[in-house]
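We close this part of the discussion by returning to an individual protein. The sequence in question and its C-alpha cells are set out directly beneath this paragraph:
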Amino acid sequence: MLNSILPFVAATALISSSIVSAAPFSSHEARNPSAQWSDWGQGKEWGQPCNSETIRTRVDFNKMAPAERKAYTDAVKCLMAQPSQIDNAEYPVAVNRYMDYATIHVNRTQHVHLDAFFLTWHRYFLWLYESDLRETCGYKGAFPYWDFASTASNPTAFPIFDGSEYSMSGNGVYNNTGPIVLGPTLSIPHGSGGGCVTTGPFANMVAPIKYIDPSYLFNGTLPDGAFDYNDICLMRDLNAYVSQTYTNEAELVAAAHAANASQFEYLLNGVIGSSSLGIHSGAHFSVGGQMDSIHVSAQDPIWYPLHTMIDKVYTSWQINYPELANTLDGSTGTALNVPPSPVVTLNTTEPDWGYFQMNPIQVQELISTTAGPFCYQYDNVIS
C-alpha cells in the first residue's frame, strides 16, 4: 500500500481541518507590524538575545559519539512515553505526545507543503520539537541532522541506520513489493527493506496513522477515518539508488548555491508531474515506508533529522547569499494553491502548530536562525 503513490510524483515529502479549534489562517494582528525581520530576537518580544554564549550548534548524527546518539534517541522515546494533549476521541492516533506532532503535521499538510510556508513553518516545528525534548525530557545534547549526502552511497553502512542501540534504528525486514511507480515518466526500484523495523531504539514501533494517498492534496481534504488508530508497524525500505541519484553532494551544493528563492525551491522539491524529485523528496524516498507519504511521514523518528538537514541546506543558502536570505519564492499558502490562497509575503501570518503554538507568528519572524524565537547554528555551511 505504501508503494502505491502514483499521484505523489515529485511532490515534496512531506489541512483544512484544525486541531484544538486552531484555525490555520486568521486575521490576527502582527506583534509589531513596523519591525523588520532582522530586529526580532533582540530581547524585544522573544526573550533573551541570541549571542555566542546562548547559541546552540546542530551537528551531524553520524559524527556524534555513541553515547550522545543514544542520549538523543532516549529523549525521543521519553517523548513517546508522555501523555497526549489532544482530544483522543477526535484524534485516536494521538496516543502520546510524540504522536501529537505527527497528528498536527497531518492536519496542517495542505497548508505547509508545496507552498511558501514550507521552509519557515517546518523550521519552527523542529524548534518546538527540540525544545520539547529539552524541557519535557531533559535532553542536553546537540540537536542532530542527518547528512543524507554523506550517506548517499549506502545508507545502511552508516551509524544512523546500522540498527544498533546507538542508531536511529535500521532498515525494515526485506519484503519485495516491487518498483515504486510515481508517474508515467518516473519510477524507482525497490530498496533493500520494505517491511517492519525490528532493530535499534525504535524496533517494533507502532505508527498508527494509516497511509494517506497524496491525491488528497489535489482537493485539499483528508480521507474519512484519517485519524483512526491502526496497528501498523514502522516500516522502512532504505534505497541506495534513490540516495545516490537524488541526495548526493552535488545536488546539495547546487541547492545551497541557487540563484534565487524560486530556483532553491525547485532544487529542493522538484516539479510535480516530472521526473525531478529534488533533494527533499529524494531523502524521503531513500527511507521508504511511512516516509513515502507526504501526510504521515512525521511518524518516523528519522523525519526530524532529515528535516533538520533540509533546514541546514536552507540556512546555508541564506548564509551564502545574504542579500537573498529573506526572499520568498512568490507562491501561495496552500499546496498546489488548493484551495486558492493569497501569495505569501514576509508579513503573512503562518499556519499555527496546534496546541504547541497557537499565537500568531509572521513569516518574517522565522526567517533567521539567530533571531525571532531562534538561537542556533550549524556546525558547518554547505559552501
About this structure: The domain at 6-378 is CATH 1.10.1280.10 (di-copper center containing domain from catechol oxidase). The beta strands are 56-60, 144-145, 172-174, 180-183, 186-188, 194-197, 376-378. Confidence is low (pLDDT under 50) at residues 1-44. The CA atoms of residues 20 and 306 lie 28 Å apart.
